[in-house]
Amino acid sequence: MPTDSSFLDVDVWRSGAESFQNFQVPARDSQTVLDVVTWIQQHADPTLSYRFACRVGMCGSCAMMVNGKPRWTCRTHVKKVAKRGRIEIAPLRNLQVIKDLATDMSDFFDKWVAAEGVFHPTKTREDEIEAIRPDTPERISADAAVECINCGVCYAACDVVAANPAYLGPAALNRAWSLVNDLRDGALAERLEAVSHDGGCHNCHSHQSCAAYCPNSLNPTASIAGLKRETVKAAFRRGR
Amino acid sequence: MLDLRLYILQRVTALIMAPLVLGHIAVMIVAVRGGLSAEEILSRTQGSLLWAGFYGTFVLAASVHAAIGLRVVVFEYAKLKGLALSLFTWAVFLALLFMGTRAVFAVTAP
């Protein structure tokens, strides 16, 4: 029910009622979706739960579904997403909801660990710092994947995660790929094994929703393609 | 659901099928353009180890490839899992292999 252009017509998911609740929010210049959610909590309903921290696109806490699409709400301007003054805000897809707009990210981060997204050092603090040339193909591939802020947007965008809850997902596999290319890491074989199970990289259909929605313009699909390539090469090497 | 072994099998069978499909289409175009009758085609294929090998390989590759592809589809859309999913995969593979082998046999048996 749009009123006048000085107000936004905002539908927000409420987990108690299992339905959307409508709020009329004053429209402002340079207003972000996170600003809208914050206004609702501070002026309309203090019981609204959501998650945020840095407000500048670094921490990856505030991702939500905005008009059905996963977005980092602190860097999403209302004028970019509002349709005739209307916005629908819901919790991230593919994750359990704790309350209202706050999701439980446990599955998401557990899968980072399951994909061996942990650095395994090959040197100790007594060793010299290893010089890494920035222009090697491995380092260029690692750099391309390394700017992930763990926001969960790609995980929410992924139709394979929706269809197969065991699937590790784009972020965890992207992290695994950055470590496969890290010359200082010593767990290549374990990592390739970890991403080759039932929920591993081979389940990716290359729809590229992760790349389309990643707020940092990363391309997890390309990282997953790299993992597929390396796991197959390793399997043929083992078979020889 | 789709592990490394099934992934490799599906990609390798795709690689095998690609040139065979092109060969099949090329032969079809050549055969039709020349106005060959069914008898004339059968006279060339019956007893031919080359054509039995060509289409036999295709049938085997297609059976494996399609069974794995359909396995993914029924898992994601029909939520089939575990033993039921394995049985479905094997059933599709064997059914396609049976029908395909029958067709190859009919055309190439002497």
Plain-language structure description:
The complex is a heterodimer of chains A (about 240) and B (about 110). Chain A has about 240 residues and is an alpha+beta fold. Chain A folds into two domains: about 5-105, Ubiquitin-like (UB roll) (Roll), CATH 3.10.20; about 105-240, Fumarate Reductase Iron-sulfur Protein, Chain B, domain 2 (Orthogonal Bundle). Chain A contains ten helices and seven strands. Chain A has helices spanning about 35-45, 80, 105-115, 135-145, 155, 160-165, 170-180, 190-195, 210-215, 220-240, and strands at about 5-15, 20-25, 65, 70, 85-90, 95-100, 100-105. In chain A, the strands form two sheets. Chain A has a five-stranded mixed sheet. A two-stranded antiparallel sheet of chain A has the order 6-7. The longest helix of chain A is centred in the C-terminal third of the chain and has 20 residues, at about 220-240. The radius of gyration of chain A is 20 Å and the shape is elongated. The N and C termini of chain A lie far apart (about 65 Å). The mean pLDDT of chain A is about 95. Chain B has about 110 residues and is mainly α. Chain B has a single domain (about 5-110), classed as 3 helical TM bundles of succinate and fumarate reductases. Chain B contains four helices and no strands. Chain B has helices spanning about 5-35, 40-45, 50-80, 80-110. Chain B starts with a helix and ends with a helix. The interface of A and B includes residues 164 and 197 of A.
